[in-house]
Amino acid sequence: MDALLIALDTALRTVSGANHAARPCPRAAAEDRLLSDAERQLSGSLMRVNHAGEIAAQALYHGQSLFARSPATLELLANAAREERDHLAWCAKRIDELGGRTSRLGPFWYAGSFGIGVLAGLRADAESLGFV
Predict the structure, then answer these.
(1) Three-class SS string for the chain?
(2) Terminal Cα-to-Cα distance of the chain (whole angstroms)
(3) How far apart are CA 114 and CA 57, in angstroms?
(4) What angle (nearest 5°) sits at the alpha carbon of residue 24, between those of residues 21 and 26?
(5) CA 49 to chain centre
C-alpha cells in the first residue's frame, strides 16, 4: 500500500510541476539572445514536446521501479528518474522563460507511460532494463 501511495504522490508532483531540479541548469544565462516572436513561439512549442517526454520518462521509471526485483535495478531506475526530474524542471523553467505553457495532456502522458513501465517492470529485471 505504501508503494502505491508513493507512486500517486510522485505522479501528482510530476504532472503538477511541483518537482525542482537538484542540479543547476547547464544552460548559461549568457546564451540568451533576443528571439523574434516567431522564434519564441516555436521554441516554446518544441520545449512543450520535450517537457511531455520528460513526464513520460518519469512515469516509465516509476512504473518499472514498482516491480524491480533486485536492489541494483531499483537503484538504477531511481538514479535515472532523479536525472530526468532535473530535465523536467529545466524544461518547465525554459517554457516559462519563453512565455509558453506545458501540455495539458501531461496526466494522460504520465498514465500511459506508467502503464507501459509497469508492464516492462513485470518482466525480468534484465528485460525491463533492456526496455529502457
Answers:
(1) CHHHHHHHHHHHHHHHCCCCCCCCCCCCHHHCCCCCHHHHHHHHHHHHHHHHHHHHHHHHHHHHHCCCCCHHHHHHHHHHHHHHHHHHHHHHHHHHHCCCCCCCCHHHHHHHHHHHHHHHHHCCHHHHHHHC
(2) 26
(3) 9
(4) 120
(5) 12
What would the grid cell of residue 29 be? 544565462
**Average pLDDT value over all residues in the chain:** 84
Which grid cell sits at 51?
Answer: 517537457
Report the pLDDT value the prediction gives residue 27, as an integer from 0 to 100.
72
Q: What are the grid coordinates assigned to 28, written together?
A: 548559461
Q: pLDDT per residue over 13-57, tens digit each?
A: 778 777 778 788 777 654 566 788 898 899 899 999 999 999 999
Q: Work out the number of other CB atoms within 10 angstroms of the CB of residue 117.
A: 26
* Least-confidence region, from 18-22, 57-61, 66-70, 75-79: 18-22
